[in-house]
Amino acid sequence: MERFSASIQQFRTVMQRKITNSCRDHPEQSIDDSNTLLEAVISKFISLGYLNDTTYGVSLLRTLQQKGYSRNRILQTMRHKGLSQDILDDIVPEAQPLDDFCAALKMCKRKKLGPYALRTRPNEMQRSLATLARAGFSYACAQKALNLKQDDIAQYLED
Questions:
Q1: Whole-angstrom distance, CA of residue 145 vs CA of residue 7
Q2: What is this structure's pTM?
Q3: Quick one: average pLDDT of 2-12?
Q4: Which residues does 136 contact at the CB level (< 8 Å), separation at least 6?
């Protein structure tokens, strides 16, 4: 908890894995008793503020937005981390077409795609489109971002 922040579900998953491994090595331990203790520890950590899904979600959202991830990819990552739909509805803003487009431009700059490419390779456009698709961007958004010039991208990112 000191080194890495985690959602309640992530913490529970990691600790249950450790409990399972420990009970396998020490047959005198009971998995049920250990899981009961784990739930008590989780409750205590929540009351102390060590585990807070909302705070964790806001921090994760900011990090993923800075990396240039699309809204779809952000939601997918946050669900994978164990955040509930209620928390996601509260902290993730509604989709705006310009937001995803700006995120695609940030991704192009960070991954050196499109106008930022250092060298041209065969099938460069398809490779770049595939990279942006894996990041959760639509085909139209990715194609538009890859076809802009660096000056136009700078203007979009300033606004």
A1: 33
A2: 0.73
A3: 90
A4: 69, 70, 71, 72, 73, 74, 76
